[in-house]
Amino acid sequence: MNFVEPDGATPLDPDERLGLKFSHITTRGELDELEQANIEQALGWLSRRRGGDILDDAFVRKLHKRLFGEVWSWAGEYRQSEKNIGVDPLQIPVQLRMLLDDARFWAENRTYVPLEAAARFHHRMVQIHPFANGNGRHARIATDIMLEDHYKHPPILWVSGLDLLADSNRRTSYISALRAADAGDIMPLLDFVGG
């Protein structure tokens, strides 16, 4: 498998690439199609689920496994390697627990309006970057689950569909908003999510 990652995507290291369950995949387009099919299957599972709280570490990992487990053998497992983004791999469980506890506090105490809580939750999830691949897609879906389950709020219109790669202008705005949030300015991300 030899392809160029889009802007904002995290490159996989050789060991992570070995986790691909389909040896015939050689292009980014083929991989995107395979992952999208897995995501659509997982969204069906989500619509039928009974229980499971997105503010629980085990459910965060289960969601990732459902979204990408048909494609990657390591889906649902925290990354073990350093990346160009994200916390040290040894800090992932601690940082994620802090985020989930914060998000639960925000929801229970109505600290933020729903879309601001969503923007902050999403940004921090992406910033932690718990998995080797699929963090943005996972974080967008997790954010929508949090909005629905904890705020009774409709999902965010991230893009027309789940594929930000197909909407380059929207993707550029999204990456720019995340980078602004990394620098301490949450306003572009609030604008992006409609808050």
From TrEMBL:
Alphabetical list of Pfam families matching this protein:
Fic
| Database matches in InterPro entries | Fido, Fido-like_dom_sf, Fido_containing, Mobile_mystery_prot_B
Kindly provide the name given to this protein in its UniProt entry: Mobile mystery protein B
Where does the Fido domain lie? 55-195
PANTHER family registered for this protein in UniProt: CELL FILAMENTATION PROTEIN (PTHR13504:SF39), FIDO DOMAIN-CONTAINING PROTEIN DDB_G0283145 (PTHR13504)
Against NCBIfam families, the record matches this protein to: mob_myst_B (TIGR02613)
- Which PROSITE patterns does the record match to this protein? FIDO
